[in-house]
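pls read this protein.

:::
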Amino acid sequence: MAGEFIRKNKLNKHTPIKVLIVDDHDMLREGLASFLRAFHDFQLVGEASNGNEAIQLCHELKPDVALIDLIMPEIDGVTTIQIIHNENPNIHIIALSSFNDEALVKTSLQVGATGYLLKNISATRLAEAIRASHAGLPTFSPEIAQSILFKQDPPLAPSGNKLTQRENEVLN
């Protein structure tokens, strides 16, 4: 019984996930801010309209997760992600985009993003993605995950194991 009480108390003392929103469109930032306020486990710590502001706010506020638009004035999202990741490797970054572009996805991930979401994602999936990213897990929109999994060349195979011709056909 005492163990159950301690577990419940630890859950009640949950620290909200600190989130920073970075997008050059006011309406999108305001919508995301309203969305975040609806969840008890998220705390909006700041908003930025460009890469320069995002870099400064990450330095000052140390959010747990930053949602960063990729197409912005002054400094583009990929460069912003790279700078923030280099200066603050503990901040988990989710790239936000309207574009399902394989090169943009790969570049974002290479420079430090832990996830890539299309802006058409549902509120529920966005909340799940923020939580997953905070836990250190990669997070992707379904369309992005599908393109990552099925555009592998050559197909993934367990290392050290040769697949039969039929196994390769099934895998493909």
Remarks:
- Helices lie at 2-12, 26-37, 51-61, 77-87, 102-111, 123-134, 142-150, 165-171.
- Residues 5 and 11 are 10 Å apart (CA to CA).
- The radius of gyration is 19 Å.
- The chain is about 50% helix and 15% strand.
